[in-house]
């Protein structure tokens, strides 16, 4: 009994193993393919395999190349205000954070010794001018020599020069605004001793502002004055428009980049200097270009090609590319306006394969 049971069990195990091995081979016969039509899926049409694809109608398009970068907002003008000479500060005439005009007096150093010297020289000049007048009258009457007259005239000229020197030194005791702007925080108070190295306050001009940023050296020959720049700053969704006004002639040896500056009017002074900016620089611009989605381009050993829809079939076309953007590629040779480009099922396409357009995109 036990021997018979073992024999039956052995036979069942052998049949099970044979069934497991044979099932994958007989499954296609027992279960026919039920895969339905869809994008990139072949369907049967009149006994032929047909691929469902998406078409893209090529039309004229304005194509631009954009370069992304980050930069810094800088004031149009900025200077640390300081005196040209040394002395005790006797008055500060500005209020921190306010606007000042060019030439406006901001602070003053004690100039009383210089004023006294000036008064002395002015008195000497007046006296000498009287002597010159009398000497000239005597010279006309030949009462004095020409040499005596020349000596007194030279003395008058010397006094006049000394007066101009003192006036210049007095002007050095005055701190005046070199341009219209906003005065910052002051670092000293009245009564403090200042030298030419002492900073009194910072003066800045923020209308307009400069946007300074760097781009790769490969664009060095392309960039031109006037190129448009779009930038935004953190915390502000507004896109501001500026234009390039200066290009550094030297390429940075460490970063292999070139520094550019753009100018934004900032008439409302809504942008403060010192902030970081996300920058988009528009480079080349081509009107009425033939452009295609990047995913439709097929790289080959001998070049690049695409498939177009023609006579209900996929036709391979060799193309020459030009400008590239993030999502589009310019085609300079091989395609024409009105061609219907196939943009899906690229890996399944082959020459003269019957295809059906599920969707047609008009760009």
Describe the structure in your own words.
This protein is of the alpha+beta class. The protein has 4 domains: 31 residues, no CATH class; 86 residues, conserved putative lor/sdh protein from methanococcus maripaludis s2 fold; 89 residues, Beta Barrel (Elongation Factor Tu (Ef-tu), domain 3), CATH 2.40.30.170; 117 residues, Beta Barrel (OB fold (Dihydrolipoamide Acetyltransferase, E2P)), CATH 2.40.50.100. 23% of the residues lie in helices and 43% in strands. The chain is built from 3 helices and 21 strands. The strands form 3 sheets. Strands 1, 2, 15, 16, 17, 18, 19, 20 and 21 form a 9-stranded mixed sheet that branches. Strands 3-10-13-12-11-14 form a 6-stranded antiparallel barrel. It has a 4-stranded antiparallel sheet with strand order 7-6-4-9, with no helix packed on it. A hairpin with a 2-residue loop joins strand 1 and strand 2. Helix 2 packs antiparallel against helix 3. The two termini are 82 Å apart. 18% of the residues are buried.
């Amino acid at each position: 009994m036990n021997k018979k049971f073992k024999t039956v069990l052995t036979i069942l195990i052998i049949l099970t193993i044979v069934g497991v091995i044979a099932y994958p081979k007989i499954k296609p016969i027992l279960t026919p393919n039920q895969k339905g039509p869809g994008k990139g899926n072949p369907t049967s049409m009149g006994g032929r395999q047909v691929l469902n694809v998406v078409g893209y109608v090529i039309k004229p398009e304005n194509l631009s190349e954009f370069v992304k970068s980050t930069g810094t907002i800088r004031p149009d003008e900025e200077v640390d205000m300081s005196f040209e000479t040394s002395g005790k500060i006797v008055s500060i005439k500005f209020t921190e954070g306010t606007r000042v005009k060019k030439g406006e007096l901001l602070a003053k150093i004690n100039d009383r010794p210089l004023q006294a010297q000036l008064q002395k020289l002015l008195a000497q000049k007046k006296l000498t001018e009287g002597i010159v007048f009398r000497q000239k009258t005597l010279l006309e009457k030949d009462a004095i020599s020409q040499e005596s007259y020349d000596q007194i005239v030279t003395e008058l000229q010397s006094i006049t020069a000394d007066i101009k020197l003192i006036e210049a030194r007095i002007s050095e005791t005055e701190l005046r605004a070199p341009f219209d702007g906003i005065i910052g925080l002051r670092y000293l108070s009245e009564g403090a001793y200042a030298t030419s190295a002492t900073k009194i306050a910072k003066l800045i001009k923020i209308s307009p502002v400069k946007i300074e940023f760097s781009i790769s050296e490969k664009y060095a020959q392309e960039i031109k004055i006037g190129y448009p720049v779009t930038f935004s700053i953190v915390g502000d969704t507004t896109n501001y428009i500026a234009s390039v006004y200066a290009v550094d002639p030297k390429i940075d040896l460490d970063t292999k980049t070139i520094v550019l500056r753009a100018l934004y009017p900032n008439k409302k002074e809504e942008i403060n200097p010192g902030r970081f900016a996300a920058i988009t620089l528009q480079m080349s611009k081509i009107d009425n270009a033939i452009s295609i989605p990047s995913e439709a381009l097929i790289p080959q050993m001998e070049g690049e090609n695409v498939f177009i829809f023609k006579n209900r079939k996929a036709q391979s076309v060799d193309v020459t590319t030009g400008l590239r953007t993030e999502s589009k590629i310019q085609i300079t040779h091989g395609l024409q306006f009105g061609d219907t480009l196939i943009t899906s099922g690229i890996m399944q396409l082959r020459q003269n394969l019957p295809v059906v357009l599920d969707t047609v995109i008009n760009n």
